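Render this sequence as a predicted structure.
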Amino acid sequence: MSASRTERLLNLLIALLNTKYGLSRAVLRDKVYHDAGDNDVAFGRMFERDKSDLKQFGFDIETLLDHGFGSDDPASTRYRIGKESNRLPDVHLTPAEGTVLLLAAQLWERAALGSAAASALRKLQASGDLADVELPAGVQPRIKPAGQAFDDIILAMNGRHPVSFGYRAASTGKDERRLVEPGGLGSRFGQWYLVGYDRGREAKRFFRLSRMTSDVHVETGYHCEIPAGFNTRTELDSLSELPLQEAHLEVAEGRLLGLRKRAAREADARVAGCPPDGRDRLSVPFRDSDLLAEELASYGPHVRVVGPPELRDAVVRRLEGAAAFASRPAVEVRFPDAGPAPRARKRTSEDQLNRMLQLVPFLVHNQGLPIQDVADRFGISRKELLEDLKILICSGRPEGYPDDLFDIDWENEHVYIREHLELNRPVRFSVDEACALLTGLATLGGLPAQAGMSEEEQSGALESVTLKLTGAAGESGRLAAAVSGPPVAPADAESFDTITRAIEAGGQLRLRYLSPRRDSVSERDVDPFRLYSLDNTWYFEAYCHSKAGLRNFRLDRIEEIAPNGRPVSRSGNAEEGVPVKLYTPNDDDVVVVLELTRQGAGLADDYYAERTAVLPEGGLLAEVRFGSADWLPMFVAQHGGAVRILQPAELADVSAAWVASALAQYKQ
């Protein structure tokens, strides 16, 4: 990333914002570019490229002509940017509106659009409207990460480009390359879909992201438009739920209690055949073969799919993928730096300028914050923040006098800004920022009322803040209708209400809980702290007295739950573990080094990798803590070739043997 180019773009923006009558090319070349460019042609190209970059940020650059001169005379042409150009309109929010907006932004915390939601919130916080608003205690809904394909398609829709990818069609089972003009992304029946115009078939098609067999490639050399009035939610409403089927399974005796509880009946011997000794025949209802195959593959040799063939093939395909990945030559395990490594595209001058355009108004409205707090708010290191501040204090109006520069002080470890050069207000939402907030608000519709609000009050706040943000977003809000999030309302409303009341009252709960990893049912007394979700799968974090530690419980695995009449024995600290993690570290964890493909790289975030390193082909090394080594073979088999264990070597061998044993059942 070129700091000089960032500084030049920033100085050009300030110069054009702080002129009443406009500045000519000659003045800009002398005062901003300092005669950069070997000749007029080279300078002209640089200037036009920089103007184009500023327009990408939404700044409307006015071209002024002296009276009597033609538009083709560069010497008589002057440029300026109106002070109100691309400024985010004032958005005044009530406390209730601020609360639901924070909930909507928090939905994306571990998912795609998460950084865009955080960026949009910082812009609103710079105006002071969200300064005193906090998330409601005890509840944190979130959207499940949809993987790298989601990010790539959002990027393509934002830039209005087609995408290409390998795809396995459900109807034929064939893997073919598709070229698609993306219209929208949405979640339906627990799966994410791309809705778009298939150029090869010259028709609208729906594509499940889970059936994409390659990386998504953004075709930047081509242009396409989302049709006017396109609404992904409406398009997905036309999809019919898959018909109910029965899976015929052979299950190891005494194993897989959770699967057995879902079994409709013992399978017909004429259909299932005669199972081997020590096996039971089960018939389990299902609709989606891919979703069930992911679960069944994780059970390895404890289950064999007899039919239907589509389900059997889906399980075998996952196991074969895991076996093939495990057999590849090992890569060097080396983490050059501590901490997770960035996996996004290389940062550019435009990225840094975008951050500075947020940083200046944020500092204006949050004077005196510690340097590290500011860096944490922007998700960057202290070093990166100091580099930004050093560029800012060297930037200013073309005249170059002391009063024409930014006046920023951070020598006492607290940051103060006294001269902002007309950059004291945040710029408008970008397309993905508007999409993150507006889509999040639309997703909250079925969530039970929070923060002491009634259902009517929460519904009214959702409607009013959506209208305000839609108006503030303007054209940038166009992508919001193209993204439709999954429902986040809890499927088990009774358990949700019981836990919510216990959290509010500070009371203990007694629950009967099924643990698939241990394949057992246990009874626990717990102190509940908070509820959180991935889509509509809800969990609650609690102190478990039988395990003497923090644990996370899935609501759909609770068989019985009720207050036990005792108060909680320890208080939950709202600042600890926020955002809530699906995994709570302990001293006896096993530390594992994983290799992830590019498509599976999101697992590093899902499981809170402590260190990561980017591999040359786009994959990832990830060092992750797991509470149970016994579960790791299931984890590898479940993800079917997206992940393998590198270290410890003995766990890698156990995992490979588990997958091989599962595959051997289908070769008899």
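Summary. The chain has 20 helices and 25 strands. The longest strand covers residues 520-534.
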